[in-house]
Amino acid sequence: MSNNIVILGAGVSGLTTAYLLSQDPANKVTVLAKHMPGDYDIEYASPWAGANYMPVGKKGSPHQAWETATWAPLKELCEKNPDAGIHFQDTLIYNRKKDQGTAAGNWFAELVQPNPWYMNVVPDFKTLPQSELRSDMDNGQKFTSVCINTAIYLPWLIGQCVKNGAVFKREVFKHIADAANAHHTGQKADVVINCTGLSSKTLGGVLDDKLFPVRGQIVVVRNDPGEMVSVSGTDDGEDEVTYIMTRAAGGGTIIGGCCQENNSDPLPDPNLATRIMKRAIDICPKLVKPGQGIEGLDIIRHGVGLRPYRRGGPRIEKDEVDGVKIVHNYGHGGFGYQASFGCSEETVRLVKEVLQSKPRSKL
Ligand code: FAD
Questions:
Q1: What are the backbone angles phi and psi of residue 46, rounded to the nearest 5°?
Q2: pTM value?
């Protein structure tokens, strides 16, 4: 017996869920979305992400479990599927205790603390000796992580799904239940998986007012420092951060950033861009030639994306709206890639529960 599955949304959450579900030939998967890989839009978070694996889940939380579960699949893609656009990078993390309690400090609290839980997950973890720390840093660590070229990885996921028989269509829905009538077979879907990110705030049948945007501004440059660097905070503002990551396969280096809550301005702020570039060179002088300042950065573009944060954490749960079985998988804030496999595996478990309870047709 086959299962008719509709996935609403083609960001990293929808595509990872489609990738996993389409591996079972019994699942007939239709992915429907307003935006698809290749689009750059303020309503579509996934293309703007760095994206790297910098665990931030609180120890003992489901978030920690999702990030832990995501490391092995990302590592395997790195090792076995270089065409997916993911590569290993040396990673340096610096902590300034004075950032504790700020918006940036709270976001990075688990990432920057000494002996974090993820020291047993990522390879080559090492605490930096005092001699390798600048005087304004209190502690630091080094490990191997990954950086994803989203412009390659998202289309790669689509390619895998299409090879498995999944069908992709552009469509915009005002109500989640309507998506059940848009399965490519013409039959009603057995289940709709909601991966609409921040749009679940306004999508009929969901209207989740726990969602809010956290604005992230980035500069993409051609310079390659050869390592990823993140710092717990800045002296420029409590919701500004510094991170540097180089995407695989010629994707350029992403320099960030900020974490501006409830700010949805899609236009890059030029003053913030200058601060972002200055801070990046300050913490990682290798970005430019000796003696150079921001004039040494070769800018590809400026960008802004909105992280789909949700009070209480992502929503991964079963629901029923107007008689349509739904499984939600949205609200992944600034960690949608690094938790993608963990969250999608949990979604798949819930989808299986829904499918097991569906009425069997009479023989
Ligand atoms: P989205 O990517 O927003 O996708 C939503 C999908 O739903 C789209 O296809 C959209 O068209 C569709 N949709 C919505 N409403 C409708 C509708 N009504 N009808 C039809 N389709 C609809 N995460 C990391 O793990 N590591 C990082 O390094 C990282 N860096 C980031 C840097 C920046 C600057 C930003 C902005 C984010 C970063 N993130 C990072 C977070 C990550 O990008 C998000 O968590 C993730 O992209 C969310 O993906 P999503 O699929 O849930 O939502």
A1: -55, -40
A2: 0.97
